[in-house]
Amino acid sequence: MRARLLIGFLVVAALTQVSFGQTGTRTIRLTTMDDVGIVGTFYPVHGDSVPVVLLVPGYTKARDEWASFASYLQRNGIAALTIDLRGQGESTRQVTTEGVRALNQEQFTAHDFQNMQLDMEAAVTWLQDQPGIRKDRIAIAGASMGANVALRYAAVNEDIAAILLLSPGINYRGVRTDDVITSVGSRPLWIVVSRYDPFAFESSKRLVEIRKDAGQVADDKELTACSGNLHGTEMLTGVKTLPEIMLAWFKQVLLGIVPESTKPVAPAAESAATVTAPTTNSPPAPVPPAVTPAPAK
């Protein structure tokens, strides 16, 4: 039984569904425990035991930054849900006793950012209620501050099967990671960061060190450092084959499918890096890929 985010409260998951469009997506509308309206896009996959990845955007970004990767997951048999956290994208309204409050992340306090955990709870609760979704195969991926939000939520919800973090920080606007990283335990975790993205790179190394000190990591395979200085979802377009390797990792940790070796693709820009898929004989296991730096130009 998973640890509930807040005991004694119920998350209201009010949903407005839109019929399938040509893109095979649905817009969903959720209401959090504190009456914030959260808007998301669901990328369904038909089946009786479908894994799903919840994709969380970074500070002042919106769910669209994950749209291409969400569609890629969907085409390969893994459902996805992208959401706008409170104060970003279309999630900009909160009903209060004094009326409707407009939400803007640029005006948030640390308390507002910490309450994003309620957005995550509403999204996961909705996913668990969907027919065909396998409740023990829900993973989370977050970018930048969204990585911090994702990690903090996974720390209190043992039902989250795997966690992928792009450019996490020790502390983004009051949302910390160093105090909860050991709560991941033995669940699959993969951190991807650019070597010349200083704060995120040093933060990521520190997070792995904390896990090692707690006896939770046997090697450095939980951390992949790419060349360049791209941040968050920028790496999805700037690091060659990264989306493909991320898909392979999710298939391995959610479905037990061992990835085949992938021939590296030459980088198209200075900031790009080439990623080579690993293989393993004991799926599912959190084995991120090695990275070959881009050639100097």
Which terms summarize this structure?
disordered N terminus, single chain, two-stranded antiparallel ribbon, 14 strands, 8-stranded mixed beta sheet, 7 helices, Rossmann fold
Would you write up a description of this structure?
With 297 residues, the protein is α/β, with parallel strands linked by helices. The protein has one domain (26-292): 3-Layer(aba) Sandwich (Rossmann fold), CATH 3.40.50.1820. Helix content is 25%, strand content 24%. The chain contains 7 helices and 14 strands. The strands form 4 sheets. The protein has an 8-stranded mixed beta sheet, with helices on both faces. A two-stranded antiparallel ribbon has the order 5-6. Helix 3 packs across helix 4. The N and C termini lie far apart (53 Å).
Secondary structure layout plus pairing:
Layout: E1 26-31, E2 37-43, E3 50-56, H1 67-75, E4 79-83, E5 93-96, E6 99-102, H2 110-114, H3 116-128, E7 133-143, H4 145-156, E8 160-166, E9 171-172, E10 175-176, E11 189-194, H5 198-213, E12 223-226, H6 234-238, H7 242-255, E13 274-276, E14 290-292
Parallel strand pairs: 3-4, 3-7, 7-8, 8-11, 11-12
Antiparallel strand pairs: 1-2, 2-4, 5-6, 9-10, 13-14
What is the second-level CATH architecture?
3-Layer(aba) Sandwich
CATH homology-level superfamily: Alpha/Beta hydrolase fold, catalytic domain
Which CATH C-level class is it? Alpha Beta
Q: Write down the secondary-structure element order.
A: EEEHEEEHHEHEEEEHEHHEE
**Can you summarize the main beta sheet?**
8 strands, mixed
Strand content: 15-25%
Query: What structural class do helix, strand and pairing data support?
Result: alpha/beta
Number of domains: 1
Please report the number of helical segments.
Answer: 7
End-to-end span in angstroms? 53 Å
Low-confidence stretches: 1-23, 262-297
